[in-house]
Amino acid sequence: DAGVTQSPTHLIKTRGQQVTLRCSPKSGHDTVSWYQQALGQGPQFIFQYYEEEERQRGNFPDRFSGHQFPNYSSELNVNALLLGDSALYLCASSFAYEQYFGPGTRLTVT
Amino acid sequence: AQSVTQPDIHITVSEGASLELRCNYSYGATPYLFWYVQSPGQGLQLLLKYFSGDTLVQGIKGFEAEFKRSQSSFNLRKPSVHWSDAAEYFCAVALNNAGNMLTFGGGTRLMVKP
Predict the structure, then answer these.
(1) Under an 8 A CB cutoff, do A94 and B103 touch?
(2) Is the CB of residue B80 less than 8 Å from the CB of residue B64?
């Protein structure tokens, strides 16, 4: 079992661009959550997907959107990138009370 | 609103010494509490969690934590630190009953002296 995988590992974007990050959950997990971790800070909850719908959302603007596919994999989209969006984006998959985090995608906005 | 505070941003201990990392939470109901560890360039690894029952929780890598409702604390301890324990440690509280929507503290960076 590969656990939670995320792609890409790193990417660099320019202000104003759009980005899509991808997450494949651990086998058997049906819920995917996304977190943003700015440098030197703890992760912040962005939103959670279950049954292809956004179930809960944290305090993030509408520029942040997501999608969950029938195979439970998920995408995080960020539009109109700002310098402040530079962070490590973590995906977590869960089933019942079991949750695992992926290694993250490091996004740098210049 | 739920919140988690980790008062110590950095802690340095000598290898073999004991360790205690502090965590205080603010939550209206019975909290689900977690400790995670993050090594440089890595994701988050769960050390232990408290949902209910015994207030002293045993985790992986020799860590334990004690839930104290009266103090709103969930401190992480280890009797003897190894050099490989150097990392960033995060305390978190769950925002939902499934325990999979978390609010994290700011983290404590642990450095281990030889």
Answers:
(1) no
(2) no
